[in-house]
Amino acid sequence: MDDRTFRSAMGKFATGVTVITTLLDDEAHGMTANAFMSVSLNPKLVLISVGEKARMLDKINETGTFAVNILSEDQKEFSMYFAGQIKEKRDFEFDWVSEIPVIKDALANIVCKIHSKQIAGDHTLFIGEVTDLVIRDGAPLTFFEGKYGKIVNAEQ
Asked: Mean pLDDT, the chain, as a whole number?
């Protein structure tokens, strides 16, 4: 199968949208990712997947820490910016949890230290041990077939 067919098949899986953040040299860095999952309750572990060409790869390797910010339905601009879809420079004001920059008003800010990592094809899988978190009410930003969306609650 070709790459386009594979990507199309993977796009059939609806996901939430996250921005991965870290702090390096007193500067906040972010990267949009929808490759995120919970791994374990005891210990509390999550997994993110970072491409070998992503600038964030070296930053996470160097800092050993990252935060997963689960975006709300009103935070599409954050996703687009940190995915490189918005080219002009934006100055976002971050919140801070355990000295890690996090996206303000995200549904969840999950702060992690690297527990382990595994190179898998053209990505590195980081398993993070959750060291702190903040949660908020709201509805998630979604991603399906290459498009952003929102969850619509249908009355039963």
From this structure: 94
Distance CA 72, CA 149 (A): 11
Q: Which token pair is 149?
A: 């969306």
What is d(CA 115, CA 110) in angstroms, rounded to the nearest whole number? 14
Comparing 135 with 1, the larger pLDDT belongs to 135
User: Does 37 score more than 60 pLDDT?
Assistant: yes
| Helix residue ranges, H only, the chain | 3-10, 55-63, 76-82
Please check the confidence at residue 155 and state whether its pLDDT lies above 80: no
CATH 2.30.110.10 fits 14-143, yes or no: yes
Neighbouring C-beta atoms of residue 45, cutoff 10 Å: 17
- Which among 124, 127, 130 is positioned nearest to 53, based on CA atoms? 124
Nearest of 146, 128, 139 to residue 65 by alpha carbon: 128
pTM given for the model: 0.93
What residue segments make up the domains of the chain, in order of their start?
14-143
Q: What is the mean pLDDT of residues 60-84?
A: 96
Q: What is the spatial order of strands in the sheet that 108-120 belongs to?
A: 27-33, 18-24, 65-70, 108-120, 123-135, 45-51, 36-40
